[in-house]
Amino acid sequence: MDLYIIQSKATGDFKIGKSKDPIRRLKQLQTGSPYELKLILTLKGQGYKEKIIHRHIMMRNKRKCKGEWFDYELLPCLPDDIYELLDLDLVNSWWES
């Protein structure tokens, strides 16, 4: 299983999940979303980290969690080793245009 992070163009909110096929998962989520979604990170074979990361973020600020989606402002709450892998120029700008 791979770990993925998908971001919403409408708000910058993001979802962390696990899937054997993150691109297919993106397409499934896109079907149910009126807003464009973008796969901003995939980590091969690291799906086991999903629940750990969810707990890590929720411990920092549970109020900004919206079901399976996290407020854009919580991106820096990702564990450092994952946050450092994000292309922040893309993550911070594509959805604001």
Widest sheet: strand ordering: 3-1-2-5-4
Q: Tell me what portion of residues adopts beta-strand conformation.
A: 15-25%
In total, how many beta strands? Answer: 5
Number of helices: 4
Helix and strand composition category: alpha+beta
Percent in helix = 25-40%
Question: Can you offer a commentary on this structure?
Answer:
- The chain is α+β, with helices and mostly antiparallel strands.
- The chain has one domain (2-93).
- 32% of the residues lie in helices and 25% in strands.
- It has four helices and five strands.
- The chain has helices at 22-31, 50-60, 80-83, 88-93; strands at residues 2-8, 14-19, 37-43, 65-66, 69-70.
- A hairpin with a 5-residue loop joins strand 1 (2-8) and strand 2 (14-19).
- The protein starts with a strand and ends with a helix.
